[in-house]
Amino acid sequence: MSRRRGLREHLSAWVWLLPVVGYLLAFYAYPLYRNVELSLKDYTVRSFVTGDAPFIGLGNFRDVVADPLFGTALWQTAAFTVVSIAFQYTIGMALAVFFHRSFRLSTVLRALFLVPWLLPLIVSASTWSWMLNSDSGLVNALLGAVGLPQVNWLTSPHWSLVAVIVANVWIGIPFNLVILYGGLQNIPQDLYEAAALDGAGGWTTFRHLTFPLLRPVSAVTILLGLVYTLKVFDIIWIMTRGGPGTSSTTLTIWSYQQSFGSLLPRFGPGAAISNILIVAAIAIGLGYVVLQHRQATT
């Protein structure tokens, strides 16, 4: 009787898991499989209809790495990711510490800081495109009002990458604020009272108490930020389309341009570029797991 009950409970558990398993297979496993297949074959528009794309192995990857644009796109992806994460985390941490001190209108201001995170990306990117417009943008109007030279934010090869980084930082700050603020809420208040009795100032308390205790939360925040920022497409495409020239082209933009940006799409190289990004994201995740394991065993 107990054996039959155990079997029934086991089957019942699988019934509840089936929707999740089906969702993961349909929207994660199968697209990933198709993307890997695309990168290993010479797919054209005709191949999608006939299904006779020849297998070329790592040929698409060799073509991508040998392309002169690969180094530029890789460097700009790294710069876009690292600078964005550095500013998002630093500003998010400062705001989290600021709001951790209870004061009037704290809840209202904290809610207002969530607006960039809640807005659709197309709205945020379009807003920044208007603000950074060379002729009628708000930013150049303010620069002119204080006597500073105006900047061609979106049309200058020297400033286009800076422009999309600024927009991405603005969008990502609320996420860091929410996660880090939640981490601060879990730090016992008694520790701060003991630090105050020992005469520790604000910076000393943050350096030796707050920051060390927030390391696990910080690690998760930075990991999620890295994975998300690596695949940012909407903001860059709406603001600069990877230009002017290739000055703000990242790997995601290049992948899209290869696959859909011309009358003769190159689906194989486009898929190969996206697989390189997937491998990078997996490497970051594995690095985080290894780091957490080492910290747990020391």
Describe this structure in words.
This protein has 298 residues and is mainly α. The protein has helices at 2-39, 45-50, 59-66, 68-100, 106-113, 115-118, 121-131, 138-145, 160-185, 189-197, 202-213, 215-230, 234-239, 251-260, 267-297. Helix 3 (59-66) packs across helix 15, helix 4 (68-100) packs parallel to helix 9 (160-185) and helix 14 runs antiparallel to helix 15. It is globular.
Secondary-structure-derived class: mainly alpha
Q: What is the level 1 CATH name of the domain at 70-264?
A: Mainly Alpha
Order of helices and strands: HHHHHHHHHHHHHHH
Radius of gyration from the alpha-carbon trace, in angstroms: 24 Å
State the end-to-end distance.
47 Å
Major sheet summary line: none
Helix content: over 70%
What is the count of helical runs? 15
CATH architecture descriptor text of the domain at 70-264? Orthogonal Bundle
Number of strands: 0
Residues in β-strands, percent? under 5%
Low-confidence parts lasting 5 or more residues at pLDDT below 50?
Answer: none
As for the CATH topology of the domain at 70-264, it is MetI-like fold
Instruction: Let me know the average pLDDT.
Output: 88
Global shape: globular
CATH superfamily of the domain at 70-264: MetI-like
